[in-house]
Design goal:
The protein has 163 residues and is of the alpha+beta class. The protein contains two helices and nine strands; from the N terminus they run ααβββββββββ. Strand 7 and strand 8 form a beta hairpin.
Length: 163
């Protein structure tokens, strides 16, 4: 019996020796092949339904359509108090503002701006532009609210209401 135990211990040691390869405790799986996803058909958009524009692009297009142009204190469109508005710049009475970002909420536009007032740079601010009627808007900077009337495109050099 003693001899049998020694043989078994010797066999066990031989199996663990450096010359003998170690048997894996679990079977080794073959390397997985990269699975290719099943081809999915591209989502189709109905012909009459265009993809929604990006929010900034939508706000810019709405600004151009609704607010771009010259806006006067009244329908006479006198130069005093004239606003010149574009999606890139708000030229307000005694302040010039570069538009940093536009966002739209309903019929209102929020223009984040960097302004210069009387030659002094101001902290970034938000101007809110809202249509009142087809030819009247309000512009607010959080402290003041101005009402202005349509006077034509920014490029126009003539005074007077649009014709």
């Amino acid at each position: 019996m003693r001899f049998a135990l020694i043989l078994l211990a010797g066999a066990a040691l031989a199996a663990c020796s450096a010359e003998a390869p170690e048997a894996p405790s679990e079977p080794v799986a073959e390397p997985a092949q990269a699975e290719t996803p099943a081809e999915t058909p591209a989502e189709e958009t109905p012909a009459d339904e265009a993809p929604a524009p990006a929010p900034e692009a939508d706000a810019r297009a709405y600004f151009e359509q609704t607010f771009s142009g010259r806006w006067g204190m009244d329908a006479s469109c006198a130069e005093e108090g004239m606003f010149r508005l574009s999606p890139a710049d708000l030229d307000l009475y005694e302040r010039a503002c570069e538009v940093v970002n536009l966002t739209r909420e309903g019929d209102m536009i929020a223009a984040r701006t960097q302004c210069i007032v009387e030659g002094q740079p101001q902290a970034e601010n938000t101007h809110v532009l809202t249509p009142v009627s087809e030819d009247t808007i309000t512009v607010s900077d959080g402290h003041y609210e101005w009402t202005r009337h349509a006077c034509g495109p920014v490029e126009a050099e003539t005074q007077g209401a649009p014709q």
